[in-house]
Design brief:
Elements: H1 2-17, E1 22-23, E2 25-27, E3 33-34, H2 39-48, E4 57-58, E5 60-63, E6 72-73, H3 81-87, H4 94-100, E7 106-113, E8 119-121, H5 125-134, E9 147-151, E10 155-161, H6 164-173, H7 175-182, H8 186-189, H9 198-214, H10 217-234, H11 242-253, H12 258-262, E11 266-271, E12 276-279, E13 285-297, E14 303-306, H13 314-320, E15 330-331, E16 334-335, E17 344-352, E18 355-362
Antiparallel strand pairs: 1-6, 2-5, 3-4, 5-7, 7-13, 8-14, 9-12, 9-13, 10-11, 10-13, 12-15, 16-17, 17-18
Helix pairs in contact: 7-10
Organism: Melia azedarach
Keywords: Isomerase
Protein name: Mannose-6-phosphate isomerase
Length: 367
């Protein structure tokens, strides 16, 4: 009897050594890149053997077990990856099985971004459970969603609240924001010269961010109209800053959206190919343009507040807002084999239980 069990186990191990091809999900959100210009479109075409529609935006390619876009085993049946792993839990290893059961703890995506995504944040575990319980249609699971974006091309994003130094600059150079949130008593409400203590500055920054997002549509329309008029006038006299050019671009994509003004209070990040950005729970961010690989905990919980036509849960985002200020760290990774010249693997170590590192295999040295 014991011999039969050993033989059965050995056969199973040999069978599992052969890789299975996955049929993965694609998302055609309107912010995606059109047709075969999109990495996502080309990857999906190779994966599914399907034609690329030149008029269709290809935004996300999902590899994982989340119910919003599950992968399936491509062997003629309709067996999902999650179902297969439930039947073959040994493939996950003892540590994963002990912590997360017979499921993948992470979700892997490829993104092609032509138009800015929403200003958003992802809840921590405690808030995710509460949101899922109260609004299960909107918040589809109970998990948190820390994530890392690894740039495949030049990649732009907004991430985290700006520093005290930049806040002072905004209050001195963007009179429309001061007028919107301070009115006639703007200088008294936000005395720039007195913004020297970190806690006071942080409170003022969060207050301004909140007032912008909670302003009425009419107020936002009026202020953005004045902002556009001023910037279009000034660009005839001087070179606009990167942030000012970005704000005009965002306004063209999302006219009269409060997120256009809120962008002044978020760090503008530019990644080169191979660089990465790690985004923690409750951290406000928005991807702007470019293509990237994204790895995250298995979740699809998104709390949106601006730059979107979708549902906005502004009060929830403001209540959960991470109040860390300053420019985020750009991760360069480290080579696992620095002596290889024809190609190499770069590893990025992260403080996340769901995955300990994400590695990128490069086709040439220096990529």
């Amino acid at each position: 009897m014991e011999q039969n069990n050993n033989n059965s186990l050995e056969k199973k191990r040999k069978r599992l050594k052969n890789p299975f091809r996955l049929q993965c999900a694609v998302k055609n959100y309107d912010w995606g890149i059109l047709g075969n210009k999109s990495h996502v479109a080309r990857l999906f075409s190779l994966n599914a053997g399907s034609h690329i529609d030149p008029n269709l935006p290809y935004a996300e390619f999902w590899i994982g077990t989340h119910e919003s876009g599950p992968s399936f085993l491509n062997h003629g049946g309709a067996l999902s990856l999650k179902e297969w792993m439930s039947n073959n839990p040994d493939v996950l290893g003892d540590r994963v099985l002990k912590k997360w059961g017979s499921d993948l703890p992470f979700l892997f995506k490829v993104l092609s971004v032509e138009k800015a995504l929403s200003i958003q944040a992802h809840p921590d575990r405690e808030l995710a459970r509460a949101l899922h319980k109260s609004q299960p249609i909107l918040y589809k699971d109970e998990n948190h969603k820390p994530e890392m974006a690894l740039a495949l091309t030049e990649f732009e994003a907004l991430c985290g609240l700006i520093s005290l130094k930049e806040l002072k600059h905004v209050l001195c150079t963007v009179p429309e924001i001061v007028e919107l949130v301070g009115g006639a008593d703007a200088e008294q409400s936000f005395p720039v010269k007195e913004l020297d203590r970190n806690q006071e500055a942080k409170a003022i920054l969060v207050s301004i961010f909140s007032q912008i997002l909670l302003s009425s549509k009419d107020e936002i329309c009026e202020i953005i109209s004045r902002l556009k008029w001023r910037l279009n006038l000034e660009k005839k006299k001087r070179q606009l800053t990167d942030k000012e050019l970005l704000v005009l671009r965002l306004e063209g994509q999302y006219p009269n959206d409060a997120g256009v003004l809120a962008a002044f209070l978020l760090n503008y990040v530019k990644l080169n190919p191979g660089e990465a950005l790690c985004i923690g729970a409750n951290e406000p961010h928005a991807y702007i343009r470019g293509e990237c690989i994204e790895c995250m905990a298995t979740s699809d919980n998104v709390v949106r507040a601006g730059l979107t036509s979708k549902h906005r849960d502004i009060q929830t985002l403001l209540s959960m807002l991470a109040r860390k200020q300053g420019f985020p760290e750009i991760l360069k990774g480290f080579s696992l084999n620095p002596y290889t010249t024809s190609g190499r693997t770069i590893s990025f170590s992260l403080h996340c239980r769901e995955w300990y590192s994400l590695s990128r295999i490069c086709g040439r040295a220096g990529c």
